[in-house]
Automatic annotation (TrEMBL):
Residues 179-226 form the Endonuclease GajA/Old nuclease/RecF-like AAA domain. This is Putative ATPase. It comes from the Bacteria. InterPro entries: AAA_GajA/Old/RecF-like, Bact_Antivir_Def_Nuclease, P-loop_NTPase.
Amino acid sequence: MIYISSFRLSGEKVKNPNIYPYNVFADKEWDPFVFGRITVLCGNNASGKSTLLNIIGNVLSLYGTEDVAVWGSRGYFTEFCSQCGYSLGEEEDGRPIKKIPLHSRYIKSEDVLYEIKKIQKAAILEEDYVYEHVRRGMKKEEALAQQKKESPNFLEIQRFAQEKYSNGETSLQLFDDWIEPNALYLMDEPEVSLSPQNQIALAEKLNDMSRFLNCQFIIATHSPFMLGTLDARIYDIDSRYAEVKKWNELDHVRFMYDFFQKHRDEF
């Protein structure tokens, strides 16, 4: 399903070259982005991919977008967003989509790490509860039974507690919990904390969700494992014109390829 088919950034200019977010795209000559079921915005650090996602999220009023500080007395970020434009997609039967699904959202890498920290903290507190009661003479089984009565989500916390040192497994579980059918999702570097194997597993999961659950994804990443697995349209936003490229044509992927070629004898 294509919920948003294209997006055009503001072409307005401001006198001060340091005004955010105008300064991020000052040297770019980008045509409107055209989105497929999965679209990837690929670029190096400070290329503007996170800013671009946040702008799209703000224009579409998606849950999870970030507030941006006002510069002086003017809200330049809000002004910039108001100057952007977009077009919605079509239903499977060709009827135009009238609005973005309400449960669509913007998922940032910080969101995932924040949730992991909350889960870990809760798990540690649960362990401390049991430890303290055992130290005072209560049997462990009795302490667990009492804690279960006091905390309705005890079993859920314990399930995560078993994985509290595996951020990758917890991240995959969070994506399962957050992503629902029939919605648009913006994702900023979802591979953070994931091993290469789990990055590929996530990419395969997103392929299936776009194909079978009518989800649309716009993803910012520079993971070669994600790029090489996703069935995606890839924009190289390091380039002045945001060219569409194959994953193996991207400079940083070639850099990694050359690195392993240089060390191939060590394998």
